[in-house]
Amino acid sequence: MSAFSSYLPPVEGLLPKWLLLVSVISVANSVQAYATLTYTQRVYNHPAPPSPSAPSSTPSQTLKPTESANPVTPLSARTFGTWTFLSSVIRLYAAYNISDPLIYQLALWTYGIAWAHFMSEWWVFGTARWGAGLAGPVCVASGSLVWMWAQKEYYLGL
Questions:
Q1: Per the record, where are the segments of Polar residues compositional bias (predicted)?
Q2: Is there a domain that residue 67 lies in?
Q3: How would residue 64 be classed by pLDDT, with cut points 50, 70 and 90?
Q4: Quick check: is 130 in a domain?
Q5: Which of 86, 82, 80 has its CA nearest to residue 109?
Q6: Main-chain phi, psi angles of 39, to 5 degrees
Q7: Rounded to whole angstroms, how far apart are CA atoms 25 and 28?
Q8: Of 6, 16, 91, 151, which has fewest CB within 10 angstroms of its CB?
Q9: What's the pLDDT tens digit per position in 112-142?
Q10: Are the beta carbons of 141 and 149 closer than 8 angstroms?
């Protein structure tokens, strides 16, 4: 266990360790975004099918069973993977340099931007639906944002 703990951030508290954990998970998420569309499609899934009471669409507007209405493309998945990797690098730096105000603020911004992105895809653009694929990123972004905001004075000595 001591070999593992030597890699943990040397600062007291759980927030730096959380930032490290999220960073490592995000790197893995970035790799999978390049390797497959499956997991990214769980976040950005097409709108729910129409209810039985909804008026039926004309045959030309109906998707064939082999066609996908999912907005995720290989390019969008790789772009998302790159964006996620960049955020994970910033969070990794924050885990080990949590007393640096600029790095702290950058890490805080990564969670704020992530939260705004996921919420806008759900509420504004409709490319995401609430479910397991969206709940994870929203909960991590929301919880981390609130936690970092609440602990700002402690870690920055303000």
A1: 61-72
A2: no
A3: very low
A4: yes
A5: 86
A6: -75, -35
A7: 5
A8: 6
A9: 999 999 999 999 999 999 998 999 999 999 9
A10: no
Residue 104 lies in a domain: yes
150: left (phi over 0), alpha (psi -120 to 50) or beta: alpha
Q: What is the pLDDT of residue 49?
A: 55
Instruction: Give the angle 61-40-135 at the CA atoms, nearest 5°.
Output: 100
d(CA 54, CA 43): 25
pTM of the model: 0.81
Whether 59 has a pLDDT exceeding 60, the answer reads no
Q: Cα–Cα distance between 65 and 80 in angstroms, integer? A: 27
Whether 106 maps to a domain, the answer reads yes
Residue pair 108/40 in contact (Cβ under 8 Å)? The answer is no
**23, containing H or E segment:** helix 15-35
Residue type at 24? V
Q: How many residues does the chain have?
A: 158
Contacts within 8 Å (CB) and 24+ apart, 131-139: 131/42, 131/45, 132/42, 133/39, 133/41, 133/42, 133/43, 133/44, 133/45, 134/43, 137/43
Tokens linked to 7 = 């890699």
